[in-house]
Amino acid sequence: MTDVQNQPDTRGIKIKRTGVTKVHLPFLISDGDEVQQVAAQIRFTVALPENLRGTHMSRLTEILTDWTARPIKIPDLEKILLDALEKLSTDFAAITLVFKFFLKKFSPVSEKFSLSSVDCELCGELLRGERMKFTLGLIVPFTSLCPCSKEISNFGAHNQRSVCRVKLTFKNFDDVSIKNFVRLIEAQGSAEIYPLLKREDEKFVTEAAYKNPKFVEDILRDVVLVLRRSENLEAFEVECENFESIHNHNAFASHAEILS
Amino acid sequence: MTDVQNQPDTRGIKIKRTGVTKVHLPFLISDGDEVQQVAAQIRFTVALPENLRGTHMSRLTEILTDWTARPIKIPDLEKILLDALEKLSTDFAAITLVFKFFLKKFSPVSEKFSLSSVDCELCGELLRGERMKFTLGLIVPFTSLCPCSKEISNFGAHNQRSVCRVKLTFKNFDDVSIKNFVRLIEAQGSAEIYPLLKREDEKFVTEAAYKNPKFVEDILRDVVLVLRRSENLEAFEVECENFESIHNHNAFASHAEILS
Amino acid sequence: MTDVQNQPDTRGIKIKRTGVTKVHLPFLISDGDEVQQVAAQIRFTVALPENLRGTHMSRLTEILTDWTARPIKIPDLEKILLDALEKLSTDFAAITLVFKFFLKKFSPVSEKFSLSSVDCELCGELLRGERMKFTLGLIVPFTSLCPCSKEISNFGAHNQRSVCRVKLTFKNFDDVSIKNFVRLIEAQGSAEIYPLLKREDEKFVTEAAYKNPKFVEDILRDVVLVLRRSENLEAFEVECENFESIHNHNAFASHAEILS
Amino acid sequence: MTDVQNQPDTRGIKIKRTGVTKVHLPFLISDGDEVQQVAAQIRFTVALPENLRGTHMSRLTEILTDWTARPIKIPDLEKILLDALEKLSTDFAAITLVFKFFLKKFSPVSEKFSLSSVDCELCGELLRGERMKFTLGLIVPFTSLCPCSKEISNFGAHNQRSVCRVKLTFKNFDDVSIKNFVRLIEAQGSAEIYPLLKREDEKFVTEAAYKNPKFVEDILRDVVLVLRRSENLEAFEVECENFESIHNHNAFASHAEILS
Questions:
Q1: Can you give the CATH number for the domain in which B49 is found?
Q2: How far is CA A215 from CA A144, A148, A208, D23, in A?
Q3: Residue of chain C nearest A4, judged by CA positions
Q4: What is the pTM of this model?
């Protein structure tokens, strides 16, 4: 059977990324001493040399299928990418896994246990001969309470659910803790949020937010400050978005930084 | 050229709805004395008799294309459906148009003008020989402020953006005003929301919501009460959803009623 | 602390469904002799008597949190709902779990193993004193190849990815197999699809689809025929949608039936 | 009333982008000699100096409201941004408008008229004292037919809907034609697609695609070649994605280039 993908190509264009996207597979993700089974959406691509017509995409799906059964720590992403370099005879490979990561939460007063979900993205890129470049993406929810609304109103203050989206690139990815970065970021809103709150907890969260009013810009700056203090980061991007309770649109702020 | 759609079918199954969906077209929608050009997403289907294999779907797209240039009042949907009955030789046709409908808003104190968007769905169904059955769908945003949080907290109260989704079926659709139903529903939250608020307006909205705390169930019941008083309705479905600022999930309530 | 939810309500409206929605939690779903950990999106609601102002929604989250650790067979949904009837002192409860369900697939010629994902929805509704009403929702993908295009063209035929969405209500839900219904439905397209296909498999799937051309109406009718033969069903709804490769919109057909 | 936004900030962080997002407004977009009313989703941000606490976001909504009534050519985006620099006393502003753009299409044989929709994004960024940097984003659909499947199969070939997403940055944006770039890109698939096709057209499109098989990598490379020949471009990013009819995932390729 003709291998059409293997035909020569004369257009002279090396393609940086070609492969499969929106693949859904279960993965076992290790974070610290915990293993979570997640339902991941995956993009898995490789570079295609300029002299070849197409990629053997089924090999990418084969590699992914192999890895669904084994616990994956972040450094294992490098092994997946090395596998791709070899099986597809190329010099660059990239993988992105997007999934819901579940975090144990205890409500602030009654200490009731529940599980909170955070959108998590693990992204590895490997150029042959170098170490993998690893980026952790998180979308972390919390409450924000408007300082202006509090200041000018005789009572109350508008507040709302907000998210902080970060993309964190690491100097060394061996011991990155997803959970710790979630905790770091969720602490920068006006108050943390919880799946399960009894009345005494709801009072606590309401008052905590009221005592700690923050604009979307305040939250962004506070996230920037804690990320700058994080020793292991090489670069970061931050976006904060408030789903304004007094508008049908959102307030937004973003910032990116390369650390030395 | 063979007309494969016209081949006989022996499976004995009359299909209630078959046609095109996720068609995007501009439409001119008349509401009261105003005409808005909208970008509509459309589903347009007809019944297929049990003895025929397929529908001539291109005729549906042709009919839609014909109607993109002319202002459409709600009763015109019946003409579109009659067109479908005739051109597709069938006894049932249905159309759904989904679009952003823009509403003039003036902020409550400074009276600044802006445009608010509401998700709107017009749905017509026509059985040959009967009048069209018309359903208006709306997704209307507003603020909700939690009565429990206000009561138990020493200061502040959690609040958030909420939506009310309604599906309204009419006895008589000749004079339905989209705008009036939006106004009716947005008045049932803790406070209306606006695209444009200066500081004096923000103070007003914050305090208005604080003075008018409502659970998702309160809002649902108040919407039910105003819809029951609406003379022209035959039936309604209501869903309210609060994007809780203290949780990463939503509070929800729904209700449906047939009016006599 | 005042129990504001427990305040009397005088509007005289019993609410059929109120509770939490868009909760995300991991669940262990048993299907046949297999247990899958899934990331579920959940709606969990109860009826609210007309004389009470609000629902104690935190109790719903508590019940859900209790059930994240234990394997759930479909009949266990009834236990979750009974728990809700008791802990919320009400006479009706409903739960919907939506998640990716993974299915083992072996490619048709090379027999390579991979995992295919199907969108799955489990919905239980319980009225005190009755048995639970159970509905299984599935969104099953496959290929469709157009009979008209094949017939009129000198070579080739347009084909595309399609989905069939079903909602199946059961007489008896004790032994419902999710997997078996997926297999039943995916067999009704022009050809099954696979995450992993080597060249000999791709040839097989391409030719299989070409030999088995089906309109969206053909697929709908064939799904209706196999569902009618399924002994345990009480009612079903079917929607088929082809993501037409020659249009930027979709072809659609739907049908609903109550079986005696 | 205190101007809380105007309070001094000591964290020493200049924020590059802060403002409003997910604003929905109607806009009148001029392209060549045509004006289209579109329903736009908008992000509008400005830089916030390091010594100020917050942005006066209502001014951004005011500026947008002002511009909903007037036809906007691409160079007018610069005026909107200049307005923002002035009214918010800052040195950087950025705007992104996302909307459905409608294109006249005539079917290839019967020449039937219809309107095709393309996702369009206009993005302007202005640093005080410089010219605006303008980026045009497009998501253009077409058919792709697999060369491997055609080669190895005795009959037929799998094909599917595909999209090409581009981000084009211009040297000079005065005469950019949205329509022309859509036409350029849609010509690179295996065949163009149309909202309205009669049987003779469907035969034409089916055979055209079969005669012009292309991998996702082929399409990407052909788009790269035509963009390189486009005199006015400074840089481009291209992503191609095939919604594979034989898989439940997509084939993907991407490339970015800066032109000299």
A1: 3.10.270.10
A2: 7, 8, 15, 18
A3: C199
A4: 0.97
